[in-house]
Structure formats: structure tokens, C-alpha cells
Amino acid sequence: MEHLSSFSSTLCIFLLLHFYVASSVVLLRHRHNNNNNNNYNNPNRRNPILQGNQTSCALFIGTWVYDETYPFYHSSSCSAVDPQFNCQLYGRPDTEYLKYRWKPANCEIPRFNGLEFLLKMKGKTVMFVGDSLGRDQWESLICMISADVPKSQTQMSRLYPISTFKFLDYGVALSYHKAPYLVDIDTIQGKRVLKLDDVRGNANAWTGVDVLVFNTGHWWTHKGPLQGWDNVESGGTIYEDMEPLEAMEKGLRTWARWVDANIDSSRTRLFFQGISPTHYDPNEWNAGASTGSCYGETSPVTTTTMTSMYPGPDLDQTNVIKNVIREMDNPPFLLDITLLSTMRKDAHPSIYSGDLNSQQRINPNKPDCSHWCLPGLPDTWNQLFYTVLFY
């Protein structure tokens, strides 16, 4: 039986590797057939999935392995962690979810080194732009670096829409810019209007930044009181509503045009974070389940279920992102964290979030299965970000 399980795991990984390699070939052929100008040979114009030193390493296909040396830090020693993500402080009883390390299928990735990050980024700025998943990753990176340089002089400024953490001894600034749609939202006659053709208001903050990490996704599907706009403007026309994927693609293409026209890829490194999955439907990892969510989950999904989970429920938004990036003249590196994150049904705050009141925290029917605990999964996102940035 063990041999059968091992064979199934190997087969799943092989099939997923085949999927990624095939996707890469398609993208490369698309580039070859559609780009005959001098920019095609620019080393910054690389495949958004597998590029640079990572062409022989499928960074985003692999397994989660238990590792006693994890986590990188503890939330009690990092003041940057928001209550929303501080699961241990708000009563999460288990700790095994903190001990999993991502192992790509065909390579090893370097362990994160905060001092090396600061030395290589001395005098530079990094900005995460997007929704609260970007904030999750920003706070994670602050904590990971701080753990390696505990005596470094630092400064935190939490403002809206941009918050910044500085490592003063190294001149390194890490910022988070809240822009969940990337494109602008203006108030017109008392209504919030999502302007799908305009990104200039937000983009003023992006010029001159050395490393930009963008993300968007969750807010495009919000409805009711969670929806961040009242009307949508596109092509000079105001709409009361628009199909979410259509609106997302229009907004992303506006963002992409701005990037192509305004970002100098010889000066600024560009990244785009893939869709961060949610775990509200247990049928996604436990076929036939009638009730449940991420509440009570304490371990990752096994390798043998990967082929049934990917691309999963986030396929449509993932395809929009990949299609837009594929057609850019100055494409970002796609940190394709969707699959490895889909496996981490155990890593959400669930009811152990400071954003919930005491009554909500005892009600498993109101869990947060969207964000991620810190320490936790976003630390792996940053380890992969670190790998691509420096290796």
C-alpha cells in the first residue's frame, strides 16, 4: 500500500510538472511568434512562469515537508503582525501548521537570510501593491528580516493608503500600498466609482520604486457590503454593475499599459503575485463533505490530491492574469503561488483572528479562510520571492 501511495504521489508531481513545462513552451512560442523587435532579447523580458535561473527548477510544484527548524520567527517578537493575522495570540491551540517547509519537486531553494536581503537591497525600496493579501506578505517580510537583524534600528509608519517600514541602518524601505483593484477609485456625486481605464492616481506612488510586487483578485468578486465600489466606469460610460472577470481584465489591461509605458525594467524589478486561494468549501479537498470550512484543519493537503485541486476554483482569475501578462512588453515575474497555497487549508486564521470579537471567535461558522496566519504561509511566498530576486 505504501508503494502504491508513493507511486501516486510521484505520478501527480510528474503530471503537474508536465503541465507547467507545456505551459512554458506555449508562452515561449507565443513570444517568438509575436515579438520581433529588439526588446525580445532583453533579459528582463522573460517567461512569466519559469525564467532566469529558474528555467530548470519548477519552483511552484512540489510538496510540503515537516521541518522542526520552522518557523522563521514568532509573532510575539514581531510588532508588525496585525491582530488579524496573529493566530497564536488569539488562541490557536495547535502549532504544527508553523512547521511546514515548501520543497519544489526538482530542486532545493535557499533558506531565507534577512541580513543578505538587506545588504543586497541597501539603499533601495520594495513596495507591495494590492489588497490585504499583499499586506499579509508585507508584514511577513518585515518579520523575517527583523528576526535576522534584531538590533537594527527601524521605523514604522502606518498611513493610508501607504504604510512603510524602514531598516534605517541599511537604508531599506518596505512599503505596502493599499490598492485592491490596482486601478483608481474616485468619488463622483457621493458614489465610489471604479475607473477601469485609469490607474494614474495610484501609480503616482509606484514611480522610482526599485522592486514592485503587485496583486489583485479577491475584491473583484466581493458583493453587498464588502463591495468596494458603487459604480464602474469603462470607456467613458458609467455602469451600475459589470461581470467580475470582465471588469478585472479591463482593469488589469489598464495597469499593464501603464507598466509598459512607465516602468524602466533595467531599474525596477517587477513581480505579480498569483491568486491566493480561499478554503470555505471543504469539497475542494474532501469530496462529499456536506459541512465545514478551514476551521479545525491542522495539516496540508497531501500530494496525491494535487491533480484534482489544480487549477481549482481560482482558474478563471488565474487565466486572466496570465493572459494579460503574456501580452505585455514589460512583463512581471509571476509568483505563481496558487497551487502551493491551495494545499494549505490549515494555514488560515479561521476563528483565531483579532479582527473577530469574542463571540465570533467561539463560532466556527464565521471563520476567516481567506487570509493567512503569521508566521505561516506568506513566509514561503517571501522565500520564493527572495529566491527569484537574488538567485
From TrEMBL:
It is found in: Membrane. It holds the Pfam family PMR5N. InterPro entries: TBL (IPR029962), TBL_C (IPR026057), TBL_N (IPR025846). Its main location: membrane. GO terms for molecular function: O-acetyltransferase activity. Residues 109-387 form the Trichome birefringence-like C-terminal domain. It comes from the Eukaryota. Residues 56-108 form the Trichome birefringence-like N-terminal domain. Keywords: Membrane, Signal, Signal-anchor, Transmembrane, Transmembrane helix. It is a single-pass membrane protein. Coiled coil: none annotated. Residues 1-24 form the signal peptide. The keyword Amino-acid biosynthesis does not apply. GO terms for cellular component: Golgi apparatus; membrane. Belongs to the PC-esterase family. TBL subfamily. This is Protein PMR5. It comes from Capsicum annuum (Capsicum pepper).
